[in-house]
Design goal:
single chain; alpha+beta; 28% helix
Length: 101
Amino acid sequence: MRRRIAFRRSSVISLSTGRTARVERHRNGRWTPALALDFGATWVVIRTSASDHVTSGDVAFARQLARAAGAFAEEITRQYSATHPKTGTSSTRDDGKEIAR
């Protein structure tokens, strides 16, 4: 019988969004894509497991990240919409599509 080993995170890094926070996708033919989260004085760069090729694990992680980011954006939009009445102007996403309220 196998024993379960309890796993506890040893540290947490919390980065808060603000007026200067932004996300950039970097693509270059010499290496795999990267996603950079810029919080002003701190950058978080997400890259694939190898710089010269993409694995199935990289694809799975990228899809998981996209789903989590989409859910995060939807929840932020929902909470913002609940506390800010319509002002007659429409809110749009980065791709120009209107955000449903």
